Amino acid sequence: MKMDGERLWSRLSELHAFGATADGGVTRFAWSDAERQAKDRVAVWMREAGLEVREDAAGNLIGRWSGREPEAPVLLVGSHLDSVPNGGDFDGPLGVLSAIEAVDALRRAGRQPRHPVEVIAFTDEEGARFRYGMTGSRAVAGTLRREELDAHTDADGTTIAAAMTAYGLEPDRIGEAARAPGSVLAYLELHIEQGQVLEAAGQPVGVVSGIAGPLWLKFTVVGRAGHAGTTPMPGRRDALVAAAEMVQMMSEEAAAEARTVATVGQLSVRRGGVNIIPGQVEFTLDLRDVDEAVRDRVEQRIRARVAEICEARGVSCQVEELQRVPPVQCNEALQAAIVEAGRELGLSLPTVVSGAGHDGMQCAGRWPIAMLFARSRAGISHHPDEYTSPEDCALAAEILARTVARVAGA
Ligand code: HGY
Ligand code: MN
Ligand code: MN
Fold first, then answer.
1. 49-77, pLDDT tens digit by residue?
2. Do 33 and 160 belong together in one domain?
3. Which of 73, 96, 116, 317 lies most in the core, judged by the most C-beta atoms within 10 Å?
4. Crossing angle for the helix pair 5-15 and 93-108, to the nearest 10 degrees
């Protein structure tokens, strides 16, 4: 079975054009024109690979290969095409394009799977626009409630529902994207590692054992605005100084644990001015651990210390939960299938834990999921410098193709 690594590489480069930024990254938000253009291009490639293409009620792009038993449970293989602001070319697209190459390689080898295989490009995996995320995979898992589409808004106050409507979808039909448990055999995803474990081990590909769960919280700190020149330091209720102490504390609380990570990625001063004491500050926290009990313990410590800082500085703080995704373990049998596929190529794949969240987390309770990682240079991701070599991309795609053949019965 021969993987067309060159075509995979050229298609990865071609997708860069959709949402390209001035400094070499991509910004391709869910239900945006850039995502639409990328999906239209990928749909052509899906059809060229002999797939029947459709978009579901959430806007997930799906290419179906019916297989010998069209009524059998479906093997879903894919990733996402949306990105973070100014992200890289590999986070998501590598998994979608490799899945298409896997189907094409199997077809060219005259193989036909027993189970239907569906290549899927989930929409809104990153959650970059609405600070929610994995919306397309939640819809497929059947856990996304219609009212959630009105609850999350972007920086302009546009709801997910309004963005979907503008994109040509009908939010009221979101339930039609759900897959009945039993209708899906498994979900497989090839993704870049976005960390440095594989590179440090000198390994091109790894099999994922578990995925850390992201908890996203929004903190709104309210103090008292005032004149920067006439207000003495004692007695100030400076919302930004309080927030700064909280941010420092959150980083310290995470660092005190073995694997917990905490990131404050967004912070804004409401009606801020050079000569105004900040009266209100909003910031986000992304807190993760592969062990949910540890993550919860750190979360409670952070909440308690936020209250202490409020008390000490005479400010108040409102905490809003944006998303809480439990960590998941990948299916053992599927991991073994990936390891076997690697062995066919003379590789003994290392096992890695995913610090990044992925769409499979939303489906883990409904059907088995598994992932394999391709090495990331210097572990850089969510940045224009994100890079995986053409050789590593092609090798990982080859292992994905062999795993698909094994699992789908081709
Ligand atoms: O945030 C994440 O871990 C993923 O990139 N969505
Ligand atoms: Mn990402
Ligand atoms: Mn991703």
1. 999 999 999 999 999 999 999 999 999 99
2. yes
3. 96
4. 150
Environment of ion ligand 2 (residues, CB < 5 A): 91
Asked whether the whole model's pTM tops 0.70, one would answer: yes
Over residues 92-106, the pLDDT tens digits come to: 999 999 999 999 999
Q: Is there a single domain that holds both residue 231 and residue 278? A: yes
Same domain, 320 and 189: no
Contacts of 29 (CB under 8 A, 6+ apart): 19, 35, 82, 83, 128, 129
- pLDDT for the residue numbered 199: 98
Flag whether pLDDT at 3 surpasses 90: no
Q: How far apart are CA 24 and CA 42, in angstroms?
A: 21
Same domain, yes or no, for 310 and 356? no
Q: Are residues 291 and 369 in the same domain?
A: no
Which CATH number does the domain housing residue 276 bear?
A: 3.30.70.360
Same domain (yes/no): 15, 40: yes
Q: Which residues surround ligand 3, an ion (CB under 5 A)?
A: 91-92
Please state the atom number of ligand 1 nearest to the C-alpha of residue 91: 5
Domain coverage including residue 170: 5-212+327-408
| C-alpha 393: how far from chain center | 19
* Binding site membership of 347 for ligand 1 (Cβ less than 6 Å): no
Ligand 1 and 238: CB distance under 6 A: no
DSSP-assigned letters across all residues of 133-177:
--HHHHHHHT---TTHHHH-B-TTS-BHHHHHHHHT--GGGGGGG
Cβ atoms of 264 and 250 within 8 Å: the answer is yes
Count of structural domains within the chain: 2
Give the model confidence (pLDDT) of 308-331 as tens digits: 999 999 999 999 999 999 999 999
d(CA 386, CA 382): 7
Share of residues in the chain with pLDDT > 70 (%):
100
